[in-house]
Amino acid sequence: MSVTAAKGFSAAGIAAGIKENGNPDLALVVNNGPRLAAAGVFTANRVKAAPVLWSEQVLKGGQVSAVVLNSGGANACTGPEGFQDTHATAEKAAGVLKGHSAGEVAIASTGLIGVRLPMDKLLPGIEKAAVELSVHGGEKAAIAIKTTDSVHKTAVVSRDGWTVGGMAKGAGMLAPGLATMLVVLTTDADLEPPVLDRALRDATRTTFDRVDSDGCMSTNDTVLLLASGASGEVPEYDAFADAVRTVCDDLARQLIGDAEGASKDIRIEVVGAASEDDAVEVGRSIARNNLLKCAIHGEDPNWGRVLSAIGTTSAVFDPDRLNVAINDVWVCKNGSVGEDRDLVDMRYREVRITADLSAGTESAVIWANDLTADYVHENSAYSS
Amino acid sequence: MSVTAAKGFSAAGIAAGIKENGNPDLALVVNNGPRLAAAGVFTANRVKAAPVLWSEQVLKGGQVSAVVLNSGGANACTGPEGFQDTHATAEKAAGVLKGHSAGEVAIASTGLIGVRLPMDKLLPGIEKAAVELSVHGGEKAAIAIKTTDSVHKTAVVSRDGWTVGGMAKGAGMLAPGLATMLVVLTTDADLEPPVLDRALRDATRTTFDRVDSDGCMSTNDTVLLLASGASGEVPEYDAFADAVRTVCDDLARQLIGDAEGASKDIRIEVVGAASEDDAVEVGRSIARNNLLKCAIHGEDPNWGRVLSAIGTTSAVFDPDRLNVAINDVWVCKNGSVGEDRDLVDMRYREVRITADLSAGTESAVIWANDLTADYVHENSAYSS
């Protein structure tokens, strides 16, 4: 059901010819109102793609009437010409959709960096997509934004008369702030942009910002939340925020589960931290340790590499009070050898690492993947 | 010639049985004076192996009469018992060598983290090594400290009547502050500990601290510089510091050239930086980008991944003024597409990336490796 699960939205996904293999590559999501409220969060990378720079401006107005998303090219590092391409895309969508303003059309792109988009294919594609707009178009839109994703990702939560739904793409370059992802969430709840903004930031902070497949931060990350108000319902903030968080958490978990070349999903829980920031810093350091990621791939409960990663952080801890469990076996106690590592069963895809800093009561969960020969292969051959 | 190139030193390398495969695993380096001056730098990891904690104490006295190094076990994360093992090793060496004090015996260990050393093999090994001490023993000592190294690493510089020589080991877990390495440098110059300390820190800051094979910081890194004074020469500081830097640079380059699973050595030069710190931060960010490392492995001049890595730093730059060359072809100009990427010839092992921040006149060079399926294989099978 994706972005069309909530009332007031139509969507389409088509093959515009941007991808040379003829796969779907252009998605259109339209908010039919009555409200056009929106919020967005974007990559923290200082090298931002043209569509990110454009959409950041659009979101300042708090109104989004339509989103054009393309795979097959990131339109990043393409200079002023690339920005003009994004501008022209918004103008084209506004013209085709009648009554829309380019200043309320958000744009998102994904694919190879440093290559101009084939505008001779993209612009006609918008006309084609507009014709196919449908309240059942959510799945097709989710399919059209895939790059190296093996499956499309959608999630929906319905509560008392209102719904939050969404779609996501992302398989590599997943790292905090945000991951390499495009996400569009929609709701028919009747809410103002500041409320949407708060709920979206609360949700992404503990979901998309805490997945880290390969430590690489993208130039194109975009998460949008559009509200149509079509349900006529005005939910309480806490209920709405919880629904947004649930959808984001579901989509984030799907991203990790489909990360490039991965054979293991690693849930890293840091407990006993003096602060949440400490817990997140330690979790990310563990998540990014290539040697540990290789060990997990080899089903080797190499807790020494966990301690080595913790040791590079500025978090509060005493090395002699660190405890580490892998799949609930406390293989490291008080910074030294704990329970028998042969007790750790690592046959399953999900691996749980618990790092206890023994320094407080705060905690955080970071999701990561193992490092595999398939990841190397996929990313050494990507652009060639 | 290694650590015995300088006058006043003897060394040995033997198989003590610490490694189950029977390969050499214990090295002994003895300073026969007349001077016993020494300096050392150690890992910045807050989780430090027992031998690092021990040797840091020893070095505070500025006197080192002997160094015992073992491969086959890191003696890290082994608790108070592991520290007692290190202490017993120093006591044993002092006893065997006559006239030595345990407080002047430095210890260095390398191998798997979280496993106690087999002291029933290590201690008799020290007696065996002492018998084999020789002024020609430098090569054997260098061989005995290898772990996954495919070759042993030595370097020597001789100037006006004095010499600096050394040996190094390290193949994985190479990252700044320092890399996973054990290094012993010796000189017969007649210098005080503060001078040695200054020269050693000056040298490591721009050599060992600027290699980054896999972003992982070790628990055991140790670089020692021992001076015997046996040449009777007192060199000028600049000449001595230059010799130490030359030996460190040579050994650091050998470490990168032998990094686990690597097929490419990547020289990353950041120029046009507002400060040296900026240049180092940007260089390290590029060096640690897994996606870029995969691309280099695939001989793909994927400059977008360089920009993406630069964008995650706090360095001074304008995204629209970034320039990137790969093997001297400026594939990115002003943050956008530059010269034809097909002009880049990446067939050779050494790949040169130049990142111009257009923000100043400072620069730095960081050495890194590509990311390969062999790296994954070697590190997923290491302890099992």
Automatic annotation (TrEMBL), chains A, B:
Site (Involved in the stabilization of negative charge on the oxyanion by the formation of the oxyanion hole): T110, G111
Catalytic residues identified in the record: T180
Site (Cleavage): A179, T180
Residues where substrate binds: T147, K169, T180, E260, N379, S384
Enzyme Commission number(s): 2.3.1.35, 2.3.1.1
Coiled-coil residues: none
Keyword Cytoplasm: yes
Highest rank taxon of the organism: Bacteria
Any one Gene Ontology cellular component term annotated for this protein: cytoplasm
Gene Ontology BP term (one): ornithine biosynthetic process
A molecular function GO annotation: L-glutamate N-acetyltransferase activity
Pfam name, any one: ArgJ
Catalytic activity: N(2)-acetyl-L-ornithine + L-glutamate = N-acetyl-L-glutamate + L-ornithine; L-glutamate + acetyl-CoA = N-acetyl-L-glutamate + CoA + H(+)
Keyword hit for Transferase: yes
Keywords linked to the UniProt accession: Acyltransferase, Amino-acid biosynthesis, Arginine biosynthesis, Autocatalytic cleavage, Cytoplasm, Multifunctional enzyme, Transferase
Database matches in InterPro entries: Arg_biosynth_ArgJ, ArgJ-like_dom_sf, ArgJ_beta_C
Compartments it resides in: Cytoplasm
Pathways per UniProt: Amino-acid biosynthesis; L-arginine biosynthesis; L-ornithine and N-acetyl-L-glutamate from L-glutamate and N(2)-acetyl-L-ornithine (cyclic): step 1/1; Amino-acid biosynthesis; L-arginine biosynthesis; N(2)-acetyl-L-ornithine from L-glutamate: step 1/4
Record family assignment: Belongs to the ArgJ family.
Subunit structure: Heterotetramer of two alpha and two beta chains.
HAMAP family (alphabetical): ArgJ (MF_01106)
NCBIfam families named in the record: ArgJ, PRK05388.1
Function: Catalyzes two activities which are involved in the cyclic version of arginine biosynthesis: the synthesis of N-acetylglutamate from glutamate and acetyl-CoA as the acetyl donor, and of ornithine by transacetylation between N(2)-acetylornithine and glutamate.
Protein name (database record): Arginine biosynthesis bifunctional protein ArgJ
Organism: Streptomyces paromomycinus (Streptomyces rimosus subsp. paromomycinus)
